[in-house]
Amino acid sequence: MAYRNRAKIAPKEQNAWNVPLQPKPDPVGGRARKVSTGGSSSKTVTAPATPESKIPLPTVSSSMLKKSQDKFNQVQRQHAEKAKKYAAEYVSSEEEAEEELDEAVGQGEANELATRNILGDVLRNYNGIDADVGKTQDYLQNLLESRNAVCLICIETVKRVDRIWSCGACYTFFHLMCIQRWANDSMSMKRIHHEQQEGYYNNRGEYIPKPALNVQWDCPKCRREYGPDEIPRHYDCFCGKEREPAAHPWLIPHSCGELCEKKLAPACGHTCRLLCHPGPCPPCPQTVSVSCRCGSSPVKSIRCAQKSWTCVKKCKRTLSCGMHECGTQCHDPGKCPPCQNRSKQPCLCEAQTKEVNCHESRWQCGTVCNQPLPCGLHQCERVCHAGPCGDCPLGLPRSCPCGKSETRAASCAERIGTCGDTCDKLLACAQHRCPERCHQGACGNCLELVPKVCRCGSTKKPIVCHREAVCEGRCKRMRTCGKHQCNRKCCDGQCQLCDRVCGKTLPCGKHKCSSMCHQGPCYPCNQKTTVKCRCGGTVVEVACGRERKANAPKCKLPCRVASKCHHPNTHLCHTGECPPCTQPCGERNDTTNCDHLCRAKCHDAVRVVTRDKNFKPAGPWEVPKEIVEVKALPHPPCSEKVPVMCLGGHETADWPCSNSKPSSCGRPCDRLLKCGVHRCPLPCHKVTHRASTTQDSRCEACTAGCSLARPEGCVHPCTLPCHKAPCNPCLVSMKAQCYCGLTQVFYKCHEFYPSDMERMGPEELAQLTVRRESFLSCGQKCIKNFPCGHRCFSICHPGRCPNPELCTKKVKIGCKCGHRKAEVSCRVARNNSTLDCDQQCEAIRAQKQEEQERKEREARAQQELENQRELEEFERKFNKRKYRERKRHQVREEETGRHWAVYVVPVVAVLLGVVVYVWLMQ
């Protein structure tokens, strides 16, 4: 029994023409089946609509048929429930998606929606910012959408059901069996090469054993080395928690769906909070509370991946020069940059001066010192240096060139000659000594004849010591490739790598290996091949050998297939059948017999699925035959917008041409009634004349009260029924506070707000304002104060108090020093707020100044005494190396002169201060 694959049939959309289609049979009463009978021929039947219906079979009894029918209905219901449940969670595999891509319309949008759903499930438990997961999300997006994940070893597609292994450095996928074979072959080749190596003798006759075996295998892409114990043995998910993870349609392929929880790098103590995913983990999104790099700002919360943050404060630390501050923005302690301030500094020998950075104050000019040495015969040959040149080097104890006889010359001008003995210095070979007499300069090469073994160890003969023994034999060992001989003259056992090109055909079958000759399988082909679209206008590059299984590229050029309707093809190049035309029809609509063009979607070639009405099924397993036809459907009703006026003539709206009849717009009629004030409140209704704005025979009569506007400021309504203007004056009594707020005043509303106020001129408005002020004034004295703080002397009034400059209240004023005081009027004090100082004020000011100067002189004298004491203490500690007589004499003279000045100067200053003070007081 084979189910019909309905996924390959385009869904039937509701069209604008209401084409009658044959209804589907009830999925419970009978399911469409197709049963193969014999060879390739098949018979199609439809199940009866009800379980009680019987099928006339001459060879089966009615009771048996009823039992079989009940059993079939029960099984059919179970299958329908399972099919509905599976359809809600089903996601087609890559192979099915590739087959349906050419047949289904809109499959690209479905794939994009599925990709977004998968990425949302993976990132749902991530609480960081979007920028932190950008790298991982891009990796997942490319992985899910490209469908070109290829194993670089076998050049085959890595499917969602394959057992894989992912490299820990480059995160590339490989089939588990392929990477195991690759690792075992690599280590086997290295073991074979190690067994072929042998020990050898070097040119000194020492035996050099072959190196120790170090067997490792590397990733085919990034060449990261792995140990033998790191060969993958099991199929694990990306996070390593689950072994042999099952393929789930709503999870990332090869993942377990649990939290990753890998330790993040760099190590911060947190783990990855994403679901099990391929590729690297994003930076740590956790928040930590840390201070700035310099530690001067309060702590704040930042992302753990940032580790540190920089404040806006400037560093105040003193630089190594000892004069300038750092001044750079917040940085780590102890990492201040070198001082960049420039100043003129002399070189070490002080012969030259130039402007340099503070941190380069110790610099050399590069000239030879040439200062005369203490011997007076030679000059200093050292380059610019600090300090004294030192003693003459030729005046120190010297020896002959061979070093056997040592003598001390009487003068640095004398020359030390050779001693005449054998040189006997150790030569460069480190085995023999120089046989010549004591000589100047370096010794020559060693000429001793010693027996030496050649590099390959096959020949031994005497040869000069400083030369290397080389024979004429050719090395017969195999190189690392295991195919070619070394053929090197007198090889020392370290055969060079093979320098020939491999030339084997790569797995792609098109190119040959261009690497040097090697053992084992060749690396995957790194060449690219092209894959073209249907029209050949777009070409993309894929890995060599993948062009047969790679999907056709998305082409942006127009499709070149002939159109089935009267419109040209406007869609892009594609594979499979062309999608339905989505352009407007554009032909005259003959359904409504109007002059408008059809604006509906093109219906010249519409796919219509029908069923045979005369089909009689032989059983519930047969399905009525579906007939798929491409037909030209009639034009739908015209939907062109035409202007239609409503029943009351209020507005003109655009209605479809097929339904262009006047109707009510729903707005109020709003025609002026006979009262001349109100309008008709009925909704839009039919009238005799649509252009008229006065009351019609079908309008409602006025039953409202007066609604005329009252004078501005009056809030009392008119009590008369609806009438024409004007209304009677308002007689309501009003109560308000006076300007000073002490008394309540009363007045009539029409007196304060007259009805003819809008028609008054400027003079009448001014009189109205005066009258209103008189109504609101209580006639008593104002209780407000002037800006100077004194009481206003006007009658209750609005606004600010008038004439504040005429205030005559008495106030006190004084001079700047506060000695003189006087009482004047407020008006005079406002113009001149202070008095002039007299001679007595000046005398008091001079006396205070003299007192301050005297205190400053006493402080300076005390500071000089303290400095003198510190200087004497310093000289007592650091002048011990001088001769006793000279030191005592100098100290005695300094103490005599300084003590007289220390005691006499303060006494004279105090006496002068007393005299000045007495004179000022008199």
UniProtKB/TrEMBL annotation:
Which SMART domains does the UniProt record give? Answer: ZnF_NFX
Question: Which is one Pfam family of this protein?
Answer: zf-NF-X1
Q: Which UniProt keywords apply?
A: Coiled coil, Membrane, Metal-binding, Repeat, Transmembrane, Transmembrane helix, Zinc, Zinc-finger
Tell me where in this chain the NF-X1-type domain is found.
268-286, 321-349, 375-394, 429-448, 481-500, 508-527, 565-583, 675-704, 714-732, 788-809
Which GO terms fall under molecular function for this chain's record?
Answer: DNA-binding transcription factor activity, RNA polymerase II-specific; RNA polymerase II transcription regulatory region sequence-specific DNA binding; zinc ion binding
State which residue ranges cross the membrane.
900-920
Q: Spans of biased composition, class Low complexity?
A: 35-46
GO CC annotations on file = nucleus
Q: Where is this region: Disordered?
A: 1-61
Using the record for this protein, list the coiled-coil segments as residue ranges, or answer none: 841-871
Q: What family does this belong to?
A: Belongs to the NFX1 family.
What is the recorded name of this protein? NF-X1-type domain-containing protein
Origin species: Anopheles stephensi (Indo-Pakistan malaria mosquito)
What does the record give as the organism's lineage? Eukaryota, Metazoa, Ecdysozoa, Arthropoda, Hexapoda
